[in-house]
Amino acid sequence: MCGIIGYIGYRDAIPVLVNGLEKLEYRGYDSAGIACLPHQKERFFVIKEKGKLSALKEKLGDFSVEAHLGIGHTRWATHGEPSRVNAHPHIDAAGKIALVHNGIIENYATLKNILQKKGMRFLSQTDTEVGANLIGLHYHKTPKLFDAVQRAVSELHGFFSLVLFTKEDPETLIAYKRSNPLVIGLGQRENFIASDVTALLPYTREVIYLEDEDLAVITAKEVSIYSLKTRSWVKRRSSTVNWDVAQAQKQGFPHFMLKEMYEQPDVLKTILNKRIQKNGEIFFDTLSKKFQTQLKNIERVSMISCGTAYHAGLVGSIAIEKYAKISCRTQVSSEFRYGDSLLNKKDLVVLITQSGETADTLAALREAKAKGAATLAIVNVVGSTIAREADAVIYTHAGPEIGVASTKAYTAQLATLLLLAFYMAKIRRTIADADFKKLIKEIKKIPQHCAKILKEIKKFETCAQKHYTRRNFLYLGRGCNYPTALEGALKLKEISYAHAHGYAAGEMKHGPIALIDHEQPVICIASNSFTIDKMISNIQEIRARDGIVIAIGTEGHRELEKMADDFFSVPAVPEILSPILTVIPLQFFAYKIAVLNGRDVDQPRNLAKSVTVE
Ligand code: AGP
Fold it and tell me: Domain of 147?
């Protein structure tokens, strides 16, 4: 997710662009840049800088440029690590077009090859520059940028939005939308375009939300929109925004955490679209052929991570042992780094981390490398330290996660680790083709299942209202939902400050059953599984001791619904996929209880988004 801003009008463009980027920085903060056309000049003025917007502002301080047309971008890296050369805006090889981009151009590698064969040189590692050069190639053949963009986007695969202009037409901005948001701000003798209304509110509340396949031509005086879907010029109705800036950054949600929970279906769809090829095979674009061969020959796997990422690792371990038939253990990074793990070159150590900067996990990576193991990082932040130091990296593409309590990054980790397990099973020939195909078919349905759960999630609100004053909660799960119990408990404790304990349900009789009474809610993750009957027995034991049962079960499980004080159902999926679904009600339950207790949901006390110290 990146932040795009464009301006054309009577004002000095640079302050408008910088102000806009300030409001959009929550969408990505790896690097920032602006390009504008100084008044009556023939050359672009382009300034880009790695890091947060403050670095760009510092650099801009030395310049005073009068321009009335420009574009700006704040980046969340997906291709090419954060750097000045990879920062947007990108200029095409002929030096005529300046372009910013949000999203992923999936066939960028193929196109880059073709363009390089035509003699085009590239400066960056980004997919964006491929887009700029493809448009430049068409622009060379047709005098109108509008036509060049129309032709180029028909050759680009993926979900993205673009805003661009050419120095040969200082009066016009062009914008194209496909899945990623773009909104036009309507002014008097000026017009704006941005990734969301946040950047527009200081100047206008009159906006037009572009629709997919819209190609907009924006001048200071007018906005014309052509639909590539209907192949016709269209009238898009404008609307008035009544949000304030803070709300707009959360797109109307009260907290980033809730917004990020609702982004999960789209994040999972992006991951599955990116990782599952049209022929049904799994593909990780960042794994070299050499590393793929290593994956075939390793004899043991270790999943090493912290907190929520550790819970994802537990699920990943179960999947790798079940499908890839390799012994796999999971450890928290702090235990691993100070332990005496016996590793050698036949070991694969997988480091799972949203931020890619967690101190204990970084130390574990270095420990694993020192002992000769192959290291693979599963990371969300492109170009982060752990991503760069591991032998190989697979990005989870969850986009920026602002809320300290991890939600979309967790389900993105789960999906990525499950795909990795299925991939390893396939290349090691430990899974029958029919079983592999069935898993791929089922995992492709996960985004819509998530969307369905989120659509019904408000039902769970009453349950949170019943229990938000409680101070102790017990979470129970079995098999691949034992980690879900741990994750649900972590969510609740870290944002509501209640004591919440995740436990393997089979361990109840070994201690926790002493806790059962009519005061402490017991959240039981009891979706369909090999051990569902055992889970039902656990619930009966809780009921027999006057315990409070809140059950997360599979749709249609009437017996379970009757046994529970509160029941929330999730769609039926193969057991190994269920943790992606069963965690969502628990995220919401924790969120509601925290809000009802007046907690600072996005920045809970004592916590940081990335623990870069021991
Ligand atoms: C999860 O909600 C917490 N914010 C925390 O446990 C987090 O998962 C842990 O600190 C690991 O962070 P990382 O994924 O960035 O390494």
Answer: 3-243
